Amino acid sequence: MSEFAPKDTCGAINQMIILKSPEEIKKMGESNAIVAEVLTGLKERVRPGVTTLELNEYAEAVTQKKGAKPAFKGYGGFPFALCSSVNSEVVHGFPSDRPLEEGDIVSLDYGVCYGGYYGDSAITVAVGRISASAVRLMKLTEESLYRGIEKAKKGNRLGDISFAVQSCVENAGFSVVRDYVGHGIGSDLHEDPPVPNFGMSGRGVKLRAGMVIAIEPMVNEGSYKVRTKSDGWTVVTDDGGLSAHFEHTIAVTEDGPVILSSRRA
Ligand code: MG
Ligand code: MG
Question: Which domains does the chain have, with CATH numbers?
Fold first, then answer.
């Protein structure tokens, strides 16, 4: 789940970044492993005819079996465990009883709380055969996430991550959503700092070992402009173009970035 972009995305003013101990990072690895397992299972279940409500039920059942809690259900009043955003939906889409159709792309954003710590990750999945342009959008969005993660090193600045994501996206002719951003994560789902997918390298807070952040590029094939539907949650592209979303929770460590939500399967 992404956070509203704050007015000042670069400033360290008024930010409260909570560093995590190696023990806490290990615990966050456990929550994120559950998220990764759920997303792997969801990906296997995506096909024409399946509804996102069925995917929501699957995610909740696995989470419950693991003794974890779905992180998004009830968060700010969000009514479901899973955020499922189809085609021109960007983020925070409601699962529905509309069957997925061949050619759709669906972004699945999932989070849990386990042992007091949150995990958060997202993938975009193809429903059957999809267009070449949709394939390109999905690949590029995932690639931009990894370009950002590479910069999540002690001593770098937050803007180095933002710039890496933005330049990867824009050099390919796509645009990054500005109104929603990644975030710090820990014993709260959304902690400081906000992690925008756009910005200038060398700016923003200095990255320190123990910082845990969710990097989550939301990439549109057309304009970066988005709007919220009348349900108060579902964010859609303003021009009706496709959008993709990939997210990992990562820890900045002495030995570089560690992807806590990595899907090992
Ligand atoms: Mg998320
Ligand atoms: Mg998130």
Answer: 3-259 (3.90.230.10)
